[in-house]
Write a structure and sequence with these properties.
about 210 residues; Glutaredoxin; 7-stranded mixed beta sheet; about 35% helix; about 15% strand; globular
């Protein structure tokens, strides 16, 4: 019994402090020369290829909010879990006129396979060269991976928020809506769905 208690206490001490992790991550980004886009600056305009092979310009067209989720690699547990969370909340985002895109350093075919495997409905954009991630402060020239980040762009084409220290918790959808200054209360009065659908939970890991 004493050994069990000691083990539980030790595991509790080893649990990460999210605020400290966020601060350490931000410091590391600054040290690497990655500058977070400031709220109010004009968001870089770009054209990209979707996982379906179509060319799109996300910030063009009728006025809408835009959420970019930059992820470091395809077919990794964290990236899959985060995109599943976004997928489960797509109706909420659509209801608030928010267009969501996942942007990853992979080819359209690789992204298509990734989306099919985990039933991801978020439109995925190919950024194999990391050119888009570099424009948005999520990668440096010569990098092989993008930094995980959420970038919100308002209807005026300006950055609403740039979060490089976001941790995916149960209130992820609320924090995104709050970033846009929108109400997080769902129209049906129910809490936002955050549990991945059956058969789509990625394996444990980083």
């Amino acid at each position: 019994m004493l050994l069990l208690i000691a083990a539980l206490l030790l595991s509790g001490c080893m649990m990460p402090d999210r605020s400290k992790q966020a601060a350490a991550n931000e410091a590391a980004l600054l040290k690497e020369g990655l500058v977070t886009l400031k709220s109010g600056v004009t968001a870089p305009v770009f054209t990209a290829t979707t996982s379906a092979g179509q060319q799109v310009e996300p910030l063009a067209g009728s006025p809408h909010y835009t959420l970019f989720f930059f992820f470091p690699a395809v077919d990794t547990p964290n990236s899959a879990a985060e995109l599943i969370t976004l997928t489960r909340n797509m109706d909420k985002f659509t209801g608030q006129n928010i267009q969501v895109y996942g942007i990853g350093p992979a080819s359209p075919a690789e992204l298509a396979g990734f989306a099919a495997k985990y039933k991801i409905k978020v439109p995925l954009l190919s950024d194999a060269s990391l050119a888009i991630a570099t424009q948005y402060g999520c990668a440096k020239p010569g990098s092989q991976f993008a930094q995980r980040a959420l970038i919100g762009v308002g209807m005026d084409g300006k950055v609403a928020f740039a979060d490089h220290t976001h941790y995916w918790v149960s209130n992820a959808a609320k924090s995104i809506l709050d970033g846009f200054g929108l109400s997080a209360k769902p129209a049906n009065g129910k809490a936002p769905a955050t549990t991945p659908p059956a058969g789509t939970t990625p394996p444990a890991g980083k």
